[in-house]
Amino acid sequence: IPPGGTLLPQRHLYEETIYIMSGCGATTVWVEGGAKQSFEWQEGSLFSPPLNTWHQHFNGQSDKPVRYVGVTRMPVFMNLFHDLDFIFNNNFIFKKRYTGEEGYFSSQGKQFDDVVFGDPKVCETNFVPDCRSYGLADEAAGGMGEISFAFFEMSNNIMTIHISQQRAGTYKTAHHHGPGAHLVCLSGQGYTLMWPAAGGIFAEGVKRVKVDWQKHGVFSPPDKWFHQHFVTGTEPAKLLAFHAERSRKYKGIRGDTPGAGRRSIKLGGTQINYEDEDPEVRRLFKEELKKTGGTWQMSKYFPHE
Q1: How far apart are CA 75 and CA 78, in angstroms?
Q2: Cα separation of 15 and 62, whole Å?
Q3: Is the pTM of this model over 0.90?
Q4: Interval 22-40: pLDDT, tens
């Protein structure tokens, strides 16, 4: 959004979740014939305009642009309807999603137990003031590594979001799932290894792809590709992940078995446990740590290394 600028009002028949990368400003939301509701945001804020509501973004700075990432389900709906007028000029009001409730975009969220995926901290909210400082909960023992999480259900969407933090000098177990996951680096430095699940644990007959990332890096693991995140810097790394189909409230057309990403492939899941992984994975990580001055912090899992 240009300095001091305002985007045109828009509405669309697909879900969207917005993360503010830099700058500060405000957004106004309303439904046809209803009162307008405005809220302010800053770098690190996360929110989701409810489905098919009018919304308009304003840059609150006169000297700097605002930059944001909007992750949407637009391709799904375009492929489904093949009618742009239906998607962008549809006046239907989804009253079960939003009817102008006062305080809809307050930062007051509601915690609830996750009986679908078993994640440690899930919050139902429509606005997170700053993802970078949001409180996280440690992953359960025997999970995916030295990781802390927070998961969000926003605006009654099927698309969900989570924040994950990894300690410096550690890496996550490899796993795969369906398409539609997009990741944004909030802080820290590292890389992600990815390869087609058809190659198995040792990536036989396929090539591992190494994606380096730092603050504001954006990437997306392809459908059913193993991927694992490595923190090579001296500070923890935080990643913000958007999932097209992972709601606890609404199953949608989700095909993955809940929790498969945290169950060993030997037990029918999609995760490669540390003890089963290709030693080449650790060799590369140690090389990368030498380049950045990072320190190996995986002795808990590999006591003899």
Answers
A1: 5
A2: 30
A3: yes
A4: 999 999 999 999 999 999 9
